[in-house]
Amino acid sequence: MHQSLPTEMVEAILLEALDPSNPNTTWVDFVDLRRTLCLVCKIWKTLVEGHSTLWSTITIQRFSTPALLRRCMDIYKGTDAVLTIDARARKDTVKDKKLQKVENVHMDRFLAMIGAEVMPSAWKVARVTVKSGGEREIEQVTNLLAQHSWPSLQALALQPSSNMGAAPRVFDLPQTHQITTLHLDTASPRHIPLSVFPSLHDLALRNSDCGHWNGFETILHLLTHIRRLTLDKIKIAGWHSDRVVQMPDTLDTLRFSYESVEGAAVLARLEIGGLETLEIRAYGGRDLRDAVASNPSIFARSRKITVAQRHDSELETREATLAVLHAMHDVVRLDMACFGPPGVAALKEFVSKGGQLEDLEEVKCGGIFNEADMQYIAGGKFGQKFVIMQHGGVVRRGHAK
After folding, report:
1. Of 34, 63, 72, 321, which has the highest C-beta tally within 10 A?
2. What is the DSSP code string of 145-160?
3. Which InterPro entries match (predicted)?
4. Which of the two residues, 350 and 191, has the higher pLDDT score?
5. Does residue 159 contact residue 129 with C-beta atoms inside 8 Å?
6. Model confidence pLDDT, tens digit, residues 95-135
7. How far apart (Å, rounded) are the C-alpha atoms in residues 19 and 169?
């Protein structure tokens, strides 16, 4: 293929395929993929090794070798490296005590390799993600991280496979004062004194037990400089409290995902000024409608809105879409997922009653559409640009007629 394509085009394809920020390639083990592409031919090897930024993302797994790590470090000479430490064991060792002993030995070797090859290196690591089976692996890796001071470390993400009541030693790291991004999966923020992260701008809590609303309110009050806040399927007790939390003016992005009635109740307790980006992912159309009703001012003051729901009845989808459209005021970009024909019907009803959407910069619609629906979306009444997504892929994009 490379012999029939210009070198510049092959280079562009490889850069897109190896871009770690591309959501369609996050599953790839980039280390193995880069090595494989280098073996295709001399041209591909030169192209891949010629872009040091492609080697800025490295995943260290239990089967990684020191030689492989050194190769990545030798090629990569830039800054802001992204390091993922995958300490997860094989699933078949969970219940087998003999295999667990073997895995413990492998874990010791794994940690020793990281300590010998990665910690002393000249890498300027900007982000570290730790994947593990539970608290024990997280604690082992964070203890190792605490022994080394990376002056450029700004982001830390902990992703255990099982529920983690606390995030061991994460607040003992010497880099807490400089960390701006903290992502916690299944970890309870109650056990992490966020006051030790004075520079925190981006906080994500996923599948976390945040305790009682009173405690969660205290957590939110500590986020004095927060810019991006992600609350994904968090659990809160006492959410029926009437107390409202005033979020700081620095907050410009809120991503909120929930699957129960408490989601809308939590959203109603947040007093937020104008947002640049608002993303709401609800379980169904009724939940999305409740979210709009609970705090319509958030929708009115946001410039970029993304709303998504799981498949629901046509009536609920239509009503939820209408609720979002009526609540919007300052929005310039609108992204509606799980939209489909009921959403198109809502658009038609909104426009027929005098609703105006022509001034939007971009409208993105996701769902299963027929040709008539796609023609209607592209007809010029819904923004200067449009993107139609179907089955996860872009079906049509362009400028409104």
Report:
1. 321
2. HTTS--TT--EEEEEE
3. F-box-like_dom_sf
4. 350
5. yes
6. 556 666 666 777 777 777 777 766 656 567 778 888 776 66
7. 32
**pLDDT for position 90:** 58
3 state SS of 271: strand
Mean pLDDT of 202-206: 90
Residue 61, number of CB atoms within 10 A of its CB: 16
Name the DSSP class of 78: S
d(CA 312, CA 305): 20
Q: Where are the beta strands (DSSP E) in 228-331?
A: 228-232, 235-237, 245-246, 253-257, 270-271, 275-282, 302-309
Helix, strand and coil percent figures for the chain, each rounded to 5: 40, 25, 35
Half-sphere exposure of 357 (CA within 13 A, CB side): 31
- Beta carbons within 10 angstroms of residue 352's beta carbon: 8
Q: 104 in helix, strand or coil?
A: helix
- Burial grade of 16 (CB within 10 A; 0-12, 13-18, 19 or more): exposed
3-class DSSP assignment, residue 363: strand
Closest CA to 288 of 315, 267, 271, 307: 307
Three-state secondary-structure class, residue 282: strand
The CA distance from 42 to 10, in Å, is 13
pLDDT at 166: 52
d(CA 374, CA 394): 12
CB atoms within 10 A of CB 391: 8
State the pLDDT at residue 92: 47
Find tokens 């939390």 and name the residue: 245
Long-range contacts of range 93-100, CB-CB < 8 Å, 24 or more positions apart? Answer: 94/133
What's the average model confidence in pLDDT over 80-101?
66
Q: pTM of the prediction?
A: 0.81
Residue type, 168: P
Tokens of residue 59, six digits: 């995943």
Q: What is the DSSP letter of 383?
A: -
